[in-house]
Amino acid sequence: SQQGEEDPQALSIQEGENATMNCSYKTSINNLQWYRQNSGRGLVHLILIRSNEREKHSGRLRVTLDTSKKSSSLLITASRAADTASYFCATDGTSGSRLTFGEGTQLTVNP
Amino acid sequence: EAGVAQSPRYKIIEKRQSVAFWCNPISGHATLYWYQQILGQGPKLLIQFQNNGVVDDSQLPKDRFSAERLKGVDSTLKIQPAKLEDSAVYLCASSFGLAGTNEQFFGPGTRLTVL
How far apart are CA B87 and CA A91, in angstroms? Predict the structure, then answer.
């Protein structure tokens, strides 16, 4: 069954603007991760947030987690053309043994 | 540090043929994953190994897909016989520990086209 679902499916912004992507999931989790995938390449890990954390930062990335709403958001500040990629959230469920990926948000940053 | 290696990068076969993919994980990573990613979708876990034992293969179509991880290092994924709907990118990933609490490192993937 689908666990993480990203919203929006596609997002197009201008360089320098902020980009916000949302992820909703259905069952309880231990951890939530965000990954980036450039066209034709494998995925790259961005950030992991635990279920007892509400917010986490890494460089220009800010991730929030609201376990009561079963949702997370990824904010990329001051976007660059190089941020153009697909972004996926992945949840582990309470067993923690398997990651389930969402369908992704395709972000396009126009120079 | 060398990343996850996969080969081949591209493969085109006809339906009902067989195909095999190879993966070499990052040295020291006990956990190895095979994912299937259909165009426009997120990766779907096919099988997860912890060392050379299978942790999760609940989503592996066992009538046609098989995988092994001999000696707890390299792994191969085989499809026999292939169907049109198997056209996808097959991603291998590895991590130091279990999936949920550990960052996964992905290889570049093998793009399979079944005609």
Answer: 25
E strand intervals along chain B = 5-7, 10-13, 19-24, 31-37, 44-50, 53-56, 65-68, 75-79, 88-95, 105-106, 110-114
Say whether residue B101 is in contact with chain A using an 8 A CB cutoff: yes
- pLDDT tens track for B29-52: 999 999 999 999 999 999 999 988
Nearest Cα of chain A lies from the Cα of B44 at a distance, in angstroms, of 7
Q: Does A99 touch chain B (CB under 8 A)?
A: yes
pLDDT digits (tens, 9 = 90+) for A13-37: 999 999 999 999 998 899 999 999 9
Decide if pLDDT at B56 tops 60.
yes
**Which of A97, A103, A105, A106 to probe by mutation at the B interface, max B CB count within 10 Å?**
A97
pLDDT at A1 over 50: no
| Contact check, Cβ <8 Å, B44/A101 | yes
For A9, the closest chain B residue by CA position comes to: B40
In tens, the pLDDT along A54-66 reads: 999 999 999 999 9
Distance CA B10, CA A60 (A): 34
CB contact under 8 A, A88 and B45: no
